[in-house]
Amino acid sequence: MTNVIAQPRPMRAATALSDAALSSAAVAACDAGLSGRAESAISTKPLAPAESLILGESLISTKPLISTDSLPNPTLHAVQLNGVRFSYDRGKAWALDGIDLTIRPGERICLTGPNGSGKSTLSRIIAGLVAPDCGTVQLLGHQVFDGAQPDPQAYRKARHGIGAVFQNPEDQIVTTVVEDDVAFGPENLGLPHPVIAQRLDAALGAVDMAAYRHGDPAHMSGGQQQRIAIAGTLAMAPSMIVLDEPTAMLDSLAQAEVMGILDALQARGTTIVHVTHRSGETAHADRVIRMEHGRIVADTTIAYATVTDAKATDTTITQPAAGAKPDVTHVTATTAANRDCASNDSHSTAWHGMTADWQAHVDRPAIEVSHVSMRYANASNAALDDLSLTIEPGETVAIMGRNGSGKTTLARLLAALEKPSAGTIRIAGIDPATRSRRARKELRRQVGLVMQRPERQLFAETVAEDIAYGPSNQHLAPAEVASRVQDAMTLLHISHLAQRSPASLSGGQQRLAAIAGVIACQPGILIMDEPTASLDAAASARIHELVRALHDRGVTIVMITHSPEEAQTLASRIITLPEHAATPLSVVEEGEQGEARPASFVASLDPRVKMVAFLALMFTAFMIHTPVQLALSAALVAGIVAAARISPLRLLASIHMFLALFVMMGLLNVFFVRTGATLFTIASVPITTDGLSVAMLYICRFALVVILGAVLLETTTPTALADGFGSLLSPLHRVMHTQELALVMSLALRFLPILGRETRAIMDAQSARGGSIETGSPARRIKAMSAIIVPVFAGTLRHADNLSLALDARCYEEGARRTHWRLMRVRTRDIAFGVLAAVYIVALIVLGLM
Amino acid sequence: MKILTGGNFHSGAIMAAITVKKKPATRVKRLIRWESGANGYSPDGRNEAHMSDLSHAGNTPASSPISTSTDPAGADPAAQSTAARNAHDTGVADSGRWSTRRIAIYALFVALAMATSFVEFPIIPGVPWLKYDPSGIVCLIAGFAFGPSAAAIVSVLGFTPHLLMDPWGTLMAVLVSLALSVPAALVYKYRRSQGGAIVGILLGALCALAVAILGNLVVTPIYAHMSIAQVAALIVPVLLPFNLIKFAIDGVVTYLIYKPVSNLLHR
């Protein structure tokens, strides 16, 4: 891993340049210009001439690895903002209210401030992704916004030199192969193929992901994905990088990795603008700018002699010492000190958490997990392996562990959303696998689950209605429902938001509203999966207060968290789940040159030829009517399967979901075909020889089609499919936007698993609140369906918003000339395969005519 | 072919199916909001919504929330928010039918259509091979929000994974989806109101019904050894009720959720 390069830095004089005289004129111009920008005659004063600067050492001494070609004149500032104002609602409130900011090339700036201070908005303006309402913006020497109009050409040029990295790594990755994703930016810039190859090597090396270049980003951890996103911007050789809370979703090790990369970039002279609300991450910055309510309130220059001193007070990011062993707490140990929490008899009985017969045995553990293992259907490793733990009633327990150690899986098991592959669980004395529906309903009532990012499950029109969803599914009287809603809102101090629409709340408020929705069900056991992730200090404090209040009421709380401080302040016990061995990520074997060597003949075919040929084979399979044709077809398919080196067992696994369909087709045919000799009769339906043979024929040929499809999917990555699709469409480029359609296809395939996962999570969250589409009156079922569909759409739109920013940041533009990293060539083997397929089809036709 | 083209029977059944499920009080509330223009288009006729700027993301709070639910008679919130977003365009890949915003939205809707096309369950007991999947809802919403071309893109691309599993069935599903969403989107494009939406859904359901039955006539003999006449005999007892129920569910759910979804689009 790249280490921090310790270099003595010179002391810098205070440098914040601001021009007070400009600002008042700018504000006047802004107010006049806001209502009708096109016809505004007032223009701002021309920029002050560039002051001569003492060039920082970083530009002269260190030769930057990343070129600064896009900086037309190194003596100009990297960023200059004057009087910038920005409003989301046409002037009613200002997200940015008069920002004057100058950033020199090579500086590293940290933008801090509470949620809602405008840091993200400012970062987007600096990245050249949005234009402000007022003020002037100069980026990398290009005057992109002059107070009235944006200059698209200038923006285009500026963006070529600015990279942007956002919070959520998932939404920045556009395809399913690491290499192709990193190459996306250079492709958009129209760079020639050899240059792209160089940039790829440099970028992947800089983030230490070169070993994973042929892997699928979706199978990698959040930290690795964020590194891939950074590599994607580095490959465009930017002179400035803007990062908007890049570590918000990462665990501490991944945070350290990303900070290390930033340090290396800083040493090479890249200008860095880093938005963060963690104070620990400002340690290596040159300037720390604090914002509040849309204004800059502090601009501190940090002077430091050596980098290493600043690390001493750094508690948030710790790089693990070399040779440190991971902490493997034995999870079966319970300490006697936990017993004192169980004295909840004296507490208010208003919390109806416990069932009558459980309360009688209050010394029975709230949760018992014994030798539980969990392995998902197509995973190579077990998510959980022989885990045992016990949680007493009224305890507050924190569960920690690296990403991928199975914490979320454990949360879902404890909430009875899944059954373990092995072992038993008892929650509140009830086994989730019990057959008794009453017991399962009781269990559902006992356990509340706050999933990761619970604000994604909000669906109702007002906050109060959303919170009431859970209690109303418990068949309580309306008065009782209302009082529970009130109680939950009071606990979280959001009563004033009761009639607001959830979509209009801030992220932190949405989180609180979603948690209130779970608490209103008054569960005796509450499971929270990273409740304070990406929240600022104020909102986190509310949640900590809630946890303490619930603890006082006797609720058993299981909290998954990444933050050791949080665990220590709130929990009486910390359980750390052990890590698993890393799964092999590369599906494709590496050849000696480092080029990926495809594993089989079929996989090495050009995707276009493959797709067309396979589809032709599949469509014509339905011409098979005779046993001879069937034999020919079966021989061809067997040959293809062998050439694809797919084991028959794996093939069987991918088609097993069709078995039911096969059976049905067979039955249908047997039912309809009555000719031929009758063999026997079932329920007055004669089963004839013809019927059976026809059934077999239809089943077999459908099976061949399914097998062909499975082979195609196994041997071709979604990226290759999308590329092939785009290439096949390209002759039509005069009639339709083939390049854009191909990109849409590729993005859709990339996001498909993400949406599937989120839909399942939302379905789980709503069913944990008692909403289910399978049971209940039609009105309730429709409400349950809308409680699932609306958040799913909200999630879809949220991904789309983030994705479009990422596409802009990577300089994608409709109609612009793009080069391609992955070249598709039709070689002799492709022609041979095509000829083979054609010959086969002709033979099929001939046999059919005979 | 009376069965395929009989108008009154179908529309009556579909109307009955829809009106049964709506509650009267909310119907009035929705009436107001439909006509306030809080839908995918600004009322001055600009077709594609310019969603060129990100309104809020992540933890950035709404500085002054536009609460469409409490301001039905006031200034048009959708046009305001659209104009507010256009004000922050940079001019690069910001506007037009293939702005990066649009590409992202199309991609996500196609992904959603793909995901929902895998959620299949039979809705008529005893006929387990006729399955319902909610992807029609996604195509309808895309069509209402972004226009007929979006409906076409989502319908065609959304079924491509199935092409490799069930080629002829997929072709038919694509044609049915196109027949459902494109006419509905066309009608809604020219009559942006609650009435327009209902007429659009009805028209779409009719076209889709016709295409579904024709498609079944062509495709079922490929999967089962039945002549076209035998399939035709199945129309009234099996195919018609199934398709009616399927399009009724699509129409009702789309109608019910379009309001909240379009509010999300215009935050």
Report on the structure:
The complex is a heterodimer of chains A (850) and B (267). Chain A has 26 helices and 22 strands. By secondary structure, chain A is α/β, with parallel strands linked by helices. Among the domains of chain A are: 336-578, 3-Layer(aba) Sandwich (Rossmann fold); 597-737 and 815-849, no CATH class. Chain A has a six-stranded mixed β-sheet, with helices on both faces. In chain A, strands 15-16-17-13-18 form a five-stranded parallel β-sheet, sandwiched between helices. In chain A, helix 18 (607-620) runs parallel beside helix 26 (828-849), helix 19 packs parallel to helix 22 (689-715) and helix 21 (659-672) packs antiparallel against helix 22. Chain A is globular. The relative contact order of chain A is 0.09. Chain B has 267 residues and is mostly helical. Chain B has a single domain (1-17, 97-267), classed as Orthogonal Bundle (Arp2/3 complex 21 kDa subunit ARPC3), CATH 1.10.1760. Helix content of chain B is 67%, strand content 1%. In chain B, a hairpin with an 8-residue loop joins strand 1 and strand 2 (131-132). In chain B, helix 6 packs antiparallel against helix 7 and helix 10 packs antiparallel against helix 11 (228-265). Chain B is elongated. At the A-B interface, helix 3, helix 4, helix 15, helix 18 and helix 21 of A face helix 4, helix 5, helix 7, helix 8 and helix 11 of B.
